[in-house]
Specification:
Helix content: under 10%
Largest sheet: 7 strands, mixed
Number of helices: 1
Number of strands: 7
Distance between the termini: 21 Å
Shape: globular
Length: 130
C-alpha cells in the first residue's frame, strides 16, 4: 500500500499511544524520534497511527478511551538512543539503554473521533478522517 493512502475503514491499523503534547509534536514534524525501552515489531512499510492521550499508561492492559488520532507515520530505523538525539526526541532526560525510533513519512491526521489508547502497539479500527 502506498504511503500516501489511508487504509480502508474495514481494516484495522496498528496504533501507539503518545502522551500530550508529544503526539502533536510528531504530527507537526517537531518530534522525529520516539524513545522507548523496547523494539517495535514493525516493518518500515507498516503504517502506525499516533494516538495522543493525556496520561501515561503504565500497566499491561491499561487503556484510555479518550485518545485522539493525530498522525500516521512509518518507522524507518530503530537504533540506540544517544544524547545527540535529545532535541529530535523532544526529550528532557537521557537513559543509556533506550531505543530511538526514527519517524518518517509523517501524515497529520485530523478527526473528531476519540479512539482507544492502550499500552504498546495495538490494533484499532481506523477513525474517520476529516
Amino acid at each position: 500500500m502506498p504511503h500516501d493512502t489511508i487504509r480502508p475503514m474495514d481494516e484495522n491499523i496498528k496504533a501507539i499511544s503518545i502522551v500530550h503534547p508529544n503526539g502533536t509534536r510528531i504530527a507537526t514534524g517537531e518530534k522525529t524520534l520516539e524513545v522507548r525501552k523496547w523494539r517495535p515489531d514493525l516493518d518500515p512499510n507498516d503504517d502506525l497511527l499516533i494516538v495522543e492521550n493525556n496520561r501515561f499508561l503504565h500497566d499491561e492492559g491499561e487503556e484510555d478511551e479518550n485518545g485522539r488520532p493525530v498522525a500516521i507515520v512509518n518507522i524507518s530505523l530503530v537504533r540506540p538512543f544517544t544524547p545527540a538525539g535529545m532535541k529530535a526526541a523532544c526529550a528532557t532526560n537521557f537513559e543509556e539503554s533506550w531505543l530511538a525510533w526514527e519517524l518518517i513519512n509523517v501524515r497529520p491526521f485530523q478527526s473528531n473521533t476519540t479512539v482507544r489508547a492502550a499500552k504498546g502497539i495495538h490494533r484499532i479500527k481506523p477513525p474517520k478522517y476529516l
